[in-house]
Amino acid sequence: MNAPTVALDASDGLSPYRRFTREEWAHLRADAPLTLKAEDLERLQSLNDPISVEEVVAIYLPLSRLLSLYVAATQGLFKATQRFLMAEREPKVPYIIGLAGSVAVGKSTTARILAALLARWPNTPKVDLVTTDGFLFPNAELAAGGLMERKGFPESYDTAALLRFLHDVKAGQRRVTAPLYSHLVYDRVPGEERAVESPDILIVEGLNVLQPARLPRDGTAIPFVSDFFDFSIYLDGHEDDLHRWYVTRFMRLRQTAFRDPRSYFRKYAEVPEAEALEIADRLWGTINLPNLRENILPTRQRASLILTKGASHRIESVALRRL
Questions:
Q1: What is the DSSP letter of 298?
Q2: In whole angstroms, how far apart are CA 213 and each of 171, 195, 227, 305?
């Protein structure tokens, strides 16, 4: 039985969102040029997350136009604040976009498409992208704490390290590093990092990036990851579709990445198909679905923008938070 769906638009008219149909949103592209080709999309999309040129034109071009306007306005506000503080030599502060949503909803493809489009706007030539996977505790630590079956839940992340990373990026430090994660070995790569060097825009993609911390009763300042975001996106989908997409991806990975001898999931490539389907259903039902219901979906209403997918991965509606 599915969890109840929370309506985006309150019946009493108090919703903080303005909703758009796909067609209404597509009209907001205005004259924004399409700068990606079909071969670019093939390179940027993830496994089992189809995306078409028409989808980019209808959804992502208007979104990139909106974000370009928001970034320009924020850059102007930053300069005004510098003048007020008489601190003309303050370092550039990147515009940070958070992207949240369930496993298998297509966050990685959305993040890469947005990054590619935003980098083509003249005021944001340098766009970088990080995922919060690198801030998962190493498997050895998760195993020692009995958390391997909770990987992806909030407690499996080194939130303090993620907050330090975002703080340093937002403080304008020229070079900030994040741990490197390998999906092949399903773990951090020891001693390896990736550097973020003064981007105009940084996209931060992850399951729980919009989740607030528990507020202490004494009023102590407890930062949230989302405190460092200038804009946030929640990529939404129905539970049944998410389940189906997850299982389909799992079965396709059995024929591809899982067959690599280095793969953490190598054992799943060898089991019979019927057993593999049972395993995928079990992983969804015992790990990914509880995480969605307990931790991810409740953060949807904290997003600046909600993109809702239909059964075919096609985005059917857009909800934009009112300013």
A1: G
A2: 21, 27, 11, 21
- Joined together, the tokens standing for residue 52 give 């078409």
Could you tell me whether strands 127-131 and 176-182 are parallel, antiparallel, or unpaired per DSSP bridges? Answer: unpaired
The 10 Å Cβ neighbour count of residue 214 is: 6
| pLDDT less than 70: residues of the chain | 1-13, 46-48, 88-89
Short-list 130, 109, 134, 112, CA closest to 245: 109
**Angle (CA) 290 282 1, round 5°:** 55
Q: What phi, psi does 234 have (nearest 5°)?
A: -115, 125
Residue 41 has which token pair? 């999309």
Contact criterion met (CB below 8 Å) for 315 and 9: no
Tens of pLDDT, residue by residue over 37-74, are 777 777 787 666 778 889 999 999 999 999 999 999 99
Topology (CATH) of 18-211+222-321: Rossmann fold (3.40.50)
Distance in angstroms (rounded) separating the CA atoms of residues 89 and 98: 27
